Amino acid sequence: MTAAVEVAPPVAADPPAPSMHRRRRNVVWPFTFFAIFFVLYALVGYFLFRTGYVNPDASARVGNAGYTMMSRYPHLGAVGFVWNPLPSFVEIPLFKLTYWNSFIRSTGYVGAIQSALFMAGAVFQIRGIALDRQVSTLARWIAIAAFAFHPMIVFYGGCGMSEGAELFLLLWACRHLLRWLRTSAPINLVMCGVALALCYLTRIEATVALAATGMLVFAVSVVRNRPAWGWRGGTQLGIHDAVVVSFLPLFAIVTWALSSWLLVGSLFDSYTSQYGNAAQVAASGIGTLTQAVGLEGTTRNIAAQLLGMQPLIVVVLAMVLTRAVRKRCIDVLAPLAMFGGILVFQIYAIYTAATFGWFRFFMTAIPLAVVALLVTTTPGPPQSRPARVHTRRSPVWLVPMLALVLITSVPSAWAAMMNPAIGKEEFGVRAVIWPDRYSKAEHWAFWGGELSRNTAAWFDNQNLPDGSVLVDTFSLAKTWLASNHPKQFTIRSDYDFFDKVNSPLDSGVHYLLVPKPTGLGKLDAINLRYPTMWSDGAGLATLALSVVNPQGFEQFRIYKINGAD
């Protein structure tokens, strides 16, 4: 007699749970990584602001944040609609720090904290993309260094402007777009849309990235779904995916436009208002300068800026595109759409004299080169550990090319920044590094802040009542920030600003602060209302003080209203 014995089928053992030490490391190390770069960029910002380098664009954004809390009529709409608001929104809670240290507000260092936070986040996203692609550990760290230690990244990580926020959000969007290209998971389209929506609230160039991304998603979705659903079904699914990625950015565009229309009467204030981009470019005479330089000169200027920013960009794109065609891999289209689209737009805008053409406008070439190289690696199984030096899923030239990008971009970008013909906003820093060879007086980012602080101190010493100094803070935000009594100023966001512009004596105005009516000074509301104010006081006021730059040229004047106490 034979007994039957039941044997249970083999059961796969559960994978061992990660140790408490490893779980803690997975949380602590990313935070530490972010904190290291935040501190680095914040210290760079402290150095810049302590030595007196303050870019007016950074001051304008910090001022917009301050007006919402410390003006005579604090309200959220005081953030304004000329500059996209996200950096200023981030700076609003940081103004609480000014209760402990007035330096943070008076110099605009609040802006440096904002830009350091975002730029550290951008470095974190580079690390994330490298981990997603499962490149070797060596390649990952070289890629991080090629981005994080690029001189323009370091500089704009601390100078208080919006480049850090723009690059962080574009990299975040690009990371999720790359994930969608590999997995088709809709959540990645949603997250890409979230990042692009926030990017639009940072810089208007995000509309270019949105358009390029929407077209890419549509095309890829149609081609993917055509075999199963035919051209009609594939097109419908392509439209669906394009709507998913575009919905939140379009919602942000429409919501911000309607808010602008309700509060200031203009749908797109950053484009069409008296302070908008078109008005600023026209007032600065960019079109005349572009015509004088000519097509050849403009082309040389663009080439100098692009190759100064990233000298190997053409070589990198050629190698990456060649490999993409050979491997039939479309992943490289993600960084091309996200960063390359903005780069092409900036070049077009320079040719058509629609922009100032600052060197920083070419900064998207930095992540374009780094991310394009990273996506040449095909990700492996999710649980596979990255190799230390080289993985077979990467081209043999990945690490050497990343190293070359790092080695060449640092000296070339630094040389371009120190060249007044290219780094028009950055070259002033050489006066701090080589004070025996260059003077701070040669660059407006230094003496502009000193003039503003001296002017604010002069007003503070007058012991004036609230609202008695009328000033259009579009170009004079530094003076308001430097004052210990900001409520003595009636500023552009105050509800009674135009009443006081029209009837200064009857509305309690004692002084007018007006910029020289040239360049951006032409856009000043007081200069527009009283075209002869600068020359003769418009019959309303008498010159009380002239504020002169180190070269001996007047920058702005203080007029005392006739008949004011």
UniProtKB/TrEMBL annotation:
What superkingdom heads the lineage?
Bacteria
* Residue ranges of the TM segments: 27-49, 107-126, 138-159, 204-223, 243-264, 302-321, 333-351, 357-375, 396-417
> Which keywords does this Swiss-Prot/TrEMBL entry list?
Membrane, Transmembrane, Transmembrane helix
Q: What is this protein called?
A: Glycosyltransferase RgtA/B/C/D-like domain-containing protein
Q: Does the keyword Membrane apply?
A: yes
Report the coiled-coil segments. none
